[in-house]
Amino acid sequence: MKMLQIYPYDAQNDIIGKRKIAGIVSLVLMVASLVLLVTVGPKWGIDFRGGTELIIKVDPSVTDDEVREAAASIGLADATVQRYGSEDEGRFMVQTQEVSVVDEVKVAEIRTELEALGDLDAALWNEEQPDRMDLRFSQLKDIAQIEQAVMAAGLSRVTVEATGQEQEAFYTVRFQDLQNIIREGFASFFGDKFSASGGLERLETVGPRAGEQLRNSGLVSIIVALLAILIYIWFRFDIRYSPGAVGALIHDVTIALGLFVILQIEISLPIIAALLTIVGYSLNDTIVLFDRIREDLDRAGTKPLVQVVNEAMNETLSRTLITSLTTLLAVMMIAIIGTGLIQDFAVALIIGIIIGTYSSVFIASPLMIKMDGYLKERRKAQELIDKANAADGAAQ
After folding, report:
1. Is 65 in contact with 142 (CB distance < 8 Å)?
2. Helical H runs in 91-177?
3. Burial of 310 per CB tally in 10 Å (0-12, 13-18, 19+)
4. Do 114 and 170 belong to one domain?
5. In the chain, which residue ranges form alpha helices assigned H by DSSP?
6. pTM of the predicted structure, to 2 decimals
7. GO cellular-component terms in the record (predicted)?
């Protein structure tokens, strides 16, 4: 069985002695990641920046360039196209910033045309319901006239209905929805190679405001998770261990985000889930090590803390490496076989497992030693202050 050991259980290597080198490497990587995040910025997915993502199924003979050409002919702005699945499936994922046939620019043109009718009091439109506009005139208007005014802004298939009471000049304009335009556009471009009834397999639209809310919620969820972990470690162990555990997690998330920027991995809701999984996985390794340190400290006597921590690292490193490698093997299979979001999720986990294993050894424990030293120094200083105060009191 010894030949199956990745790291000898009875090893006495000076792992903690490498903490300064590891600290410098981590600091450089964290600074580089922060610079990348500030200068280049993460690649936000549709979930967070708003837009439309669709999966289409076409004849397997259709190429990526032909799908891009079709998307451009429909008028999808900045459409990105990538194959979704194997080549014989004929599936493509198309992402575009378009969420509706109407945007703020088009709304301004429509308002101009409607104002030409006279008596327009309000023309209300918002990004959350982009396929409708509510109108209020001071005088009743002919519905056909309103339709013509809206279509004069370059739109087609517009319907207008009166929505107020008999003498109220309230109207609702409904624009053709984006899904129909996309379906009909691909059907027209590809002909028999695209089925209008089943070719558009999935379409998800997120408005810019909803995307911003989701992005803020995702960031808050990570911060709340880190705070909860800080409190949990404080109660589970003591204050010495909390900064080390949380510092290692911040280290992991920061470097992982930096690598996402380099690899151009989109930050989407599944990737936020992957980041939270990374946090949990890294914390698991850290807690195993902290548990062993605490057990060893109970019977360490006068043995220095650094020596106790080093021995605990040697005792748990084999378990940590075996757990990480077996998990990596499973996740790597998903990364190789999977496609799309599943593949990105697996790649994010691979990055997190590697960084998390490293940080539990080289970041969490050294920070715990630093915190222990700080608390001892503060305790000594407080004792000196108490003695000085007691001496002053006796002198008076």
Report:
1. no
2. 104-115, 143-151
3. buried
4. yes
5. 19-39, 46-49, 64-74, 104-115, 143-151, 178-190, 208-236, 242-263, 269-298, 305-337, 340-362, 364-395
6. 0.69
7. plasma membrane
Pair of tokens at residue 324: 């990480």
Mapping DSSP to helix (H, G, I), strand (E, B) and coil, where does residue 299 land?
A: coil
In a shared domain, residues 306 and 359: yes
Give phi and psi for 5, each to the nearest 5. Answer: -70, 130
3-state secondary structure of 161: strand
CA 314 – CA 321 distance, rounded (Å): 11
Q: Report which residue type is found at 287.
A: I
For the segment 335-389, what is each residue's pLDDT rounded down to a tens digit?
A: 888 776 788 888 888 988 899 889 888 898 899 999 988 988 888 888 888 888 8
Instruction: Convert the pLDDT of each residue in 96-153 to its tens digit.
Output: 776 666 677 777 888 888 888 888 888 888 776 777 788 888 888 888 888 888 778 7
The domain of 31 spans: 16-44+207-379
Residues 190 and 215 in one domain: no
**Taking the alpha carbons of 180, 186, 188, 191 in that order, is the dihedral positive or negative?**
negative
Residue 369 CA to residue 23 CA, distance in Å, equals 13
